[in-house]
């Protein structure tokens, strides 16, 4: 399974803005993601960046104004527009926004947009005063109304010296948004998937916590893999360090109790719950309201059990039928298969992904994982050493089969 951008024809329109250099970076990132990128530069864009820069990163001809009337005749825009799966305009100047909102087609880029029925992603970039102008705001609203996805602009320092909204959204974020837009027809389209990620923290006092070494990387990879297959994804996460996959609905939590409540609130109507989080099994029985002082001597911290979220989910599922399918994880340092098999039964799972956390290239913090998938009927599949993204794709591919005919 690949990135949904793989082999997709993408038109990238670059217009006259100082952010045009970021357009070249975007062309490069889209190409690296596997897209076939046709860049169209407006005349003003060519004053900032050259077609050669674009050609060099895409490996394809970059189109300029004279191509509208060039050797291929008047149909170049129709050909480009028709074969596109996605049209991106980044940076989009105030002038181009106005033209698109009015349906004006007076250059190769705007005429191609008009000729294409592909989804349109627009990343405006201009000075803050220009963006704030009622006419620009009205144009943005109008384009939204026509179905365009508007990304940004971000606030920050602008070329004019002003600070405000106007900076083009970073190319990586636009690429991720494009990835999301190209994934909507996948095998999990319309399916509701909830993923938990990261390790919970249990307070001792206002300063100290008991936590674990989970980074959240496997959970985030699962969320991305589910999005790539078209699912509507809710990500319940303790992690603040990782970029949230574009299109995911994020619920931030800290403790096992928070996570339990977030899961309970999210599972109505859910097709698939994936509990990848490392949930604390114990928490301090009493949380000190004040910082525990050294002078008071060595503290004794009594613990109590937290709720087993998956066992609670199993009870709810018996009553409501949701979530329709549940996948758990088993982090084990010994007797991997035996322990994971017990958990699959006790927690009434449809699948458990067992990983040996004693190995240095698997488990917490690293980018790779060594996962064995175990089904309740005792069958298993060893995925071997994989990146967490590859492991996530395998797990989601297995889950997608469950929903093929239901
Ligand atoms: N889990 C849960 N609620 C908890 C603890 C764990 O829902 N309070 C989930 C985890 O998200 C994971 C699965 O249960 O999907 C197994 O977690 P793991 O830590 O491997 O097992 P535990 O049930 O906590 O048992 P032990 O720590 O004794 O191995």
Structural summary, described in words:
The chain is an alpha/beta fold. It folds into two domains: 9-181, Rossmann fold, CATH 3.40.50.1950; 192-402, Rossmann fold (3-Layer(aba) Sandwich), CATH 3.40.50.10300. 34% of the residues lie in helices and 23% in strands. The protein contains 14 helices and 19 strands. It has helices spanning 20-32, 45-48, 51-58, 76-83, 94-102, 108-115, 128-132, 134-145, 171-181, 217-228, 256-266, 309-320, 336-346, 388-402, and strands at residues 9-14, 36-41, 86-92, 120-124, 149-150, 154-157, 163-167, 192-197, 202-203, 209-210, 232-237, 249-252, 272-275, 282-284, 303-305, 325-332, 351-356, 368-374, 380-387. Cytidine-5'-triphosphate binds at residues 256, 275, 277, 279, 281, 306, 308-310, 328-331, 343. Residues 256, 275, 277, 279, 281, 306, 308-310, 328-331, 343 line the site of cytidine-5'-triphosphate.
């Amino acid at each position: 399974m690949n990135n949904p951008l793989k082999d997709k024809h993408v038109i990238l329109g670059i217009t006259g803005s100082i952010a045009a250099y970021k357009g070249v970076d975007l062309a490069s990132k889209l190409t690296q993601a596997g897209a076939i990128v046709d860049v169209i530069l407006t005349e003003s864009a060519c004053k900032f960046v050259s077609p050669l820069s674009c050609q060099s990163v895409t490996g394809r001809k970059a189109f300029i104004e004279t191509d509208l009337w060039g050797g291929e005749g008047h149909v170049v825009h129709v050909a480009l527009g028709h074969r596109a799966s996605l049209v991106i305009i980044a940076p989009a100047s105030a002038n181009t926004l106005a033209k698109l909102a009015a349906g004006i087609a007076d250059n190769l880029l705007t005429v191609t947009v008009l000729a294409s029925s592909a989804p349109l992603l627009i990343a405006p970039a201009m000075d803050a005063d220009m963006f704030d102008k009622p006419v620009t705001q009205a144009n943005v609203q109008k384009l939204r109304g026509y179905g365009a996805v508007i990304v940004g602009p971000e606030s920050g320092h602008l070329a004019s010296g002003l600070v405000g909204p106007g900076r083009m959204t970073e190319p990586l974020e636009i690429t991720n948004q494009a990835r999301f837009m190209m994934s909507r027809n996948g095998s999990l389209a319309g399916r509701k998937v909830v993923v938990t990620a990261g390790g919970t923290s249990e307070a001792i006092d206002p300063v100290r916590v008991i936590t674990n070494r989970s980074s959240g990387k496997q959970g985030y990879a699962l969320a991305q893999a589910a999005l790539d297959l078209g699912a509507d994804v809710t990500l319940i996460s303790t992690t603040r360090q990782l970029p949230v996959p574009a299109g995911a609905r994020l619920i931030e939590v800290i403790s096992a109790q928070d996570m339990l409540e977030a899961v309970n609130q999210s599972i109505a109507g859910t097709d698939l719950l994936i509990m990848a989080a490392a949930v604390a099994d114990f928490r301090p029985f009493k949380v000190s309201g004040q910082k525990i002082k050294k002078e008071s001597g060595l503290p004794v911290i009594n613990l109590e059990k937290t709720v087993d979220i998956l066992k609670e989910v199993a009870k709810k599922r018996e009553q409501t039928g949701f979530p329709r399918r549940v996948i758990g994880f088993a982090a084990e340092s010994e007797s991997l298969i035996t322990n994971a098999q017990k958990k699959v039964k006790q927690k009434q799972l449809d699948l458990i992904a067992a990983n040996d956390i004693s190995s240095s290239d698997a488990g917490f913090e690293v980018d790779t994982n060594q996962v064995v998938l175990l089904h309740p009927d005792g069958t298993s599949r060893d995925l071997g050493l994989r990146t967490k993204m590859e492991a996530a794709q395998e797990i989601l591919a297995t889950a997608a089969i469950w929903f093929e005919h239901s």
